[in-house]
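ZP: hey, is the zinc ion complex queued? I don't see it on the tracker
AM: it wasn't, my bad. submitting now with these inputs:
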Amino acid sequence: MPRYTPIDYDAYDEAYEDDNFEGPVSSKPKPKKRVETTLPGVVVRALGHHYEVETDDGIRLCRVRGRLLQERSRESTLVAVGDRVEIVPEGKKKGQIDSVDERDSVLSRQRPGSNRPAEDVILANPDQVLIVFAAAEPEPHTRMLDRFLVIAESNELPAIICVNKIDLTGLDGAKSIFGEYEKLGYPMLYASVTEGRGLDELHALLEDRLTVVSGPSGVGKSALINALHPGLNLRVGEVRDFEGKGQHTTRGAHLIRLPFGKETFIADTPGIRELGLYEIDPGSLAFYFVEMKPFIHDCRFPNCTHTHEPECAVRAAVARGEIAAERYESYLRVLDGEDLQLDEW
Ligand SMILES: Nc1nc2c(ncn2[C@@H]2O[C@H](COP(=O)(O)OP(=O)(O)O)[C@@H](O)[C@H]2O)c(=O)[nH]1
Ligand SMILES: [Mg+2]
Ligand SMILES: [Zn+2]
């Protein structure tokens, strides 16, 4: 057994994990083997090489245990926001991430400049996306809503559409703009923070899920979340969501635990903002417009882009009014690569 000189904490850790370790050759008594109790938690924020992990006894600042770093695969992010982890607590406020649970779902993108398939996990374990729009102020652009829906569909995330500020238009006014989406089968929620409408339904839809909250700036995302978590005090009327200005340290998404249910989390928008549409294969785009899906296989050409080809079942459905002309227009624009400034939030 080589002589072991404790140098730092990490070395100690490794030494403790070595079952054959006989202890430092010194007169000091052998330190007692620590009994490691781990705590379950959820990663809520990534800060460089550290992570904030929400546990039952609060948020702890954690680093990743050396042993876990060695197990790192090149295929995917080792630890991501949204991961369910086990941590070994250190003191009252810190800990080490000891293991990461298998992910049920991911929001990810391919790592640029990589020659092997490697994904950057922007968010682990998302359950759904809540796309918030306003019935008025700002003027709703359904073209932009269609883009959010494409992002949700291409990531296989169920989407819920929340139309806020119905106090400004009335329910009928809001439905005249967004009714089409109800027909497509998306769950719709009409709300008004000012009048306290729709908040109970929203509460029920979010409970015990991890929801990505997204939508243009000014539609009332922060106001809605404050209404469900009055202690949170997100700034209303500011462009940056969920965070104060001048915080650049956070990478990717940030989770906030809402004070109901056992595991209710919302993720802020940077996660989805980073997912451009540039990665979507034009040949698959129609699959992300839910109403086009049933027609795609009836096109004469299997590689039909539904733009000019003869005997295109999608265009025929548009002509018959079975697919809304506005939605088809959105499809063409996304296909065309039109940049709709999703990042101007
Ligand atoms: N009339 C009306 N205004 C609202 C409502 N919800 C939020 N607002 C206002 O809309 C503005 C933007 O809200 P905010 O929550 O910051 O939007 P965010 O950018 O999506 O987070 C603020 O001035 C809010 O007071 C609503 O239900 N009705
Ligand atoms: Mg906001
Ligand atoms: Zn076609």
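AM: back. Residues 221-222, 238, 241 surround magnesium ion (ligand 2) (CB under 6 Å).
ZP: great, adding it to the tracker
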